[in-house]
Write a structure and sequence with these properties.
The protein is mostly helical and about 150 residues long. The chain has a single domain (about 5-140), classed as Winged helix-like DNA-binding domain superfamily/Winged helix DNA-binding domain (Arc Repressor Mutant, subunit A, Orthogonal Bundle). The chain is built from six helices and two strands, in the order H-H-H-E-E-H-H-H. The protein has helices at about 5-20, 30-35, 40-50, 75-85, 105-125, 130-140; strands at about 55-60, 65. Strands 1-2 form a two-stranded antiparallel ribbon. Strand 1 and strand 2 form a beta hairpin. The longest helix has 23 residues, at about 105-125. The two termini are about 15 Å apart.
Length: about 150
Amino acid sequence: MKFSTRTLYGLKAVLALAGRFGEGSLAVSQIARQESISTPYLEQILNALKKNGLVKSVRGPQGGYVLDRKPSEVTLEDLFCALEGKKFFSAVASPPAVSTSTETTIAGFIFWRKFESLLQEGLSRVTLKELLDEARRLKKTKSTSLQTTFHI
């Protein structure tokens, strides 16, 4: 499954902020440099996240951005919806006409509806804190490989 660069970079940015939660703000330039994201593009992403209540900006010499909620309160669903909108979970625009459609078409529609539901359900259960905790555990074990099976 492929996600937009907006979503991938947004995830990197909020994880950077979540990793410093309670320690003060991060400047856009710091996040951009740390995560190899263009500063103007990152500003657009952070503005969308701010508009959706996931981050807030801090003014002044030590200004930048902070996560607006605890990392344990921000789910991946929150992030994806903030960056992609609710349309993210609707791959199929409208149901087929049952009376004139083939069983295959109807079954395909049912598949996509179930897939969307499972994806949304899975993303709603994973928080930024969980991702960071797992990353810290993996880093502590000094694994030479991140070839791990993850279950959502």
